[in-house]
Amino acid sequence: MSGSWFETVAEAQRRACKRLPKSVYGALLAGSERGATLQDNVDAFSELGFTPLTAGQPAIRDLGTHVMGQDVALPVLISPTGVQAVHPEGEVAVARAAAARGTVMGLSSFASKPVEDVVAANPNTFFQIYWSGTREQIVERLRRAQAAGCVGLIVTLDWSFATARDWGSPRIPERITFKEALRFAPQALARPGWLADVVRSRWIPDLTVPNMAAPGDPAPTFFEVYREWMTTPPPTWADIAWLRGLWDGPFMVKGITRIDEARRALDSGASAISVSNHGGNNLDTTPATIRLLPAIADAVGDQIDVLLDGGVRRGSDVVKALALGARAVMVGRAYLWGLAANGQAGVENVLDVLRSGIDSTLMGLGRSAIDELSPQDVLMPTGFLRAPKALADKDS
């Protein structure tokens, strides 16, 4: 087997750490404040167990499913992440990998590659958007995504600008000037493999976000659009319903952690929700999403596609989420580590690792398809679940 191949997501992370400049890798770790939610997202999966069969397992397992109007070969979707400046091909490489493995590409509106290029690499692309700017600007961004051929929309609500980290945040320049290049040079020289990619591809790893540009204008920087987002009044559920009315196709609300808000998303016309805490980047000490999933899935899972993101590192994690009510999961850091480790092939590698883990877990449980999974397949300790009491709905 090729020396570039890795057998676990943990190994992809180790290779990404060794290959990327320190500040770039630090940006991938993320997490707010103490990182309690970031850690709980991962650790909570280990608290759940299985009771495997030892004979009579099915010889063939079906990993395919139907989610948000799309048939996918495995229940793992690419979660949108902004500015993938860990590899010269960025989101295009990720899109190709997702297409090669038969799944959906989620593209951030803060991506480093144009939506047109990403859709060309994977026609099953969902465009992600924040409530940022004026309604006219939002409409223009949606029109561009529709014209490019995006088949779904993800509106992300789960970030309240909680960016402080107890372990510090890496210094990230707004633009790569000569002065900033000199400042960054020692880090780049310490990672010759990454630097060779930069030189060979003539790639300047800046933080411009072309999908937020107004027609005819140059691409703004991440920090320019971040400031726009921070100064835009947060949306109401009436705003989400208005946004839904602009999109004729699958529509996901990402960032649900409460039953009452899952119902509000349903009432707003969403066809899917993602139980998400923004990978631990929202309010710290929010419980792990797998702890919140069962109550939300029980409440609305028969009316809307329920997905989960946060902490998925193994195929067995995916199976646990599906057994507890998710239609599919979304992954973020896992594929970014694969991208950093080995480009498109690294992302395919991560998806293959997850596929293999899903398949072997299904075999061990005696299930021939993911649709056969149920809560009875999971051993759950007392006190594992977190189901915050739904607050009374307020006028939006």
Layout of helices and strands:
Elements: H1 9-19, H2 22-29, H3 36-47, E1 65-67, E2 70-72, E3 76-78, H4 90-100, E4 105-107, H5 115-121, E5 125-129, H6 135-148, E6 152-156, H7 178-189, H8 192-201, H9 222-230, H10 237-246, E7 251-256, H11 259-267, E8 272-275, H12 289-300, E9 305-309, H13 315-323, E10 328-331, H14 333-365
Parallel strand pairs: 3-10, 4-5, 5-6, 6-7, 7-8, 8-9, 9-10
Antiparallel strand pairs: 1-2
Helix pairs in contact: 1-14, 4-5, 4-14, 11-12, 13-14
Can you give me a brief rundown of this structure?
The chain is an alpha/beta fold and 396 residues long. It is built from 14 helices and ten strands. It has helices at residues 9-19, 22-29, 36-47, 90-100, 115-121, 135-148, 178-189, 192-201, 222-230, 237-246, 259-267, 289-300, 315-323, 333-365; strands at residues 65-67, 70-72, 76-78, 105-107, 125-129, 152-156, 251-256, 272-275, 305-309, 328-331.
Structure description:
There is one protein chain. This protein has 396 residues and is an alpha/beta fold. An eight-stranded parallel beta sheet has the order 3-10-9-8-7-6-5-4. It has a two-stranded antiparallel ribbon with strand order 1-2. Helix 4 packs parallel to helix 14.
Could you name the key traits of this structure?
396 residues, alpha/beta, 42% helix, disordered C terminus
Helices, by number, come to: 14
Q: Kindly provide the radius of gyration, computed on alpha-carbon positions and rounded to a whole number of angstroms.
A: 20 Å
H and E order: HHHEEEHEHEHEHHHHEHEHEHEH
Major sheet description? 8 strands, parallel
Given the C-alpha coordinates, what overall shape results? globular
Total count of strands: 10
Mean pLDDT: 92
